[in-house]
Write a structure and sequence with these properties.
Blueprint (H helix, E strand, L loop, with lengths): L12 H17 L6 H7 L4 H4 L6 H26 L3 H18 L1 H10 L5 H25 L5 H15 L2 H4 L5 H16 L7
Helix pairs in contact: 1-4, 1-6, 4-5, 4-6, 4-7, 5-7, 5-10, 7-8, 8-10
Length: 198
């Protein structure tokens, strides 16, 4: 599935450093529990200096969630386009989501807890990017499970996201490679239930 969309601004390395630090702080203490001064201190700059990069915490949170939503969608399109068939595309999508979940558990927590603090128009943009990401999965799954109607494929996709995005609760339980392999096996096993569509 190819979509035409306006690209999200790619953060500079410094902005990326600030976004990553803010994600860790927001995940640990909540959006309202973290000050601009603390975010600046986490990357070695003063609070006022942070305003050269972001107009405030709200704009920082907005860019954080827009950026990750855009990156997930872009990577999914690239993975699906490069795959030779539906099975390979699905494996690539699952692997990509696992990489994200294992590498960025703080972003999962921030999204779940703090999306409501993003301005309405930007929240709609984030949701649109996420819907497009889901549809990449649905398109691949429809090729592999043609008897399953789209609402069932969509529900299965969200269920798999719930499984894979459980990493904030399981980080460090297993070595990364072992955890990735376990998650991949569980995701594919759960999606195999679509064979028995009713």
């Amino acid at each position: 599935m190819t979509v035409v969309r306006s690209p999200t601004r790619v953060p500079s390395p410094r902005r990326r450093e600030i976004l990553d630090a803010a994600a860790r702080l927001f995940a640990a203490r909540g959006f309202h529990g973290v000050s601009i001064e603390e975010i600046g201190g986490a990357v070695g700059i003063s609070g006022p200096a942070l305003y050269r990069h972001f107009s405030g915490k709200e704009s920082l949170l907005t860019e954080m969630l827009l950026d990750v939503s855009d990156r997930l969608l872009t990577a999914a399109i690239e993975r699906v386009t490069a795959a030779s068939d539906g099975a390979e595309a699905l494996d690539a999508l699952v692997a990509g989501q696992i990489d994200f979940a294992l590498d960025h558990p703080a972003l999962i927590t921030v999204h779940d807890r703090e999306l409501g603090n993003v301005p309405t128009a930007d929240r709609r943009r984030i949701r649109r990017l996420q819907r497009l990401y889901v549809e990449e999965w649905v398109t691949v799954l429809s090729e592999l499970y043609p008897a399953a109607p789209p609402p069932r494929l969509r529900a299965a996709t969200h269920a798999v996201f719930g499984l894979l995005n459980s990493t904030p609760h399981s980080a460090g339980e297993l070595p990364r490679d072992a955890m990735a392999a376990l998650l991949h096996h569980m995701a594919r096993a759960s999606l195999a239930a679509l064979v028995n569509d009713r």
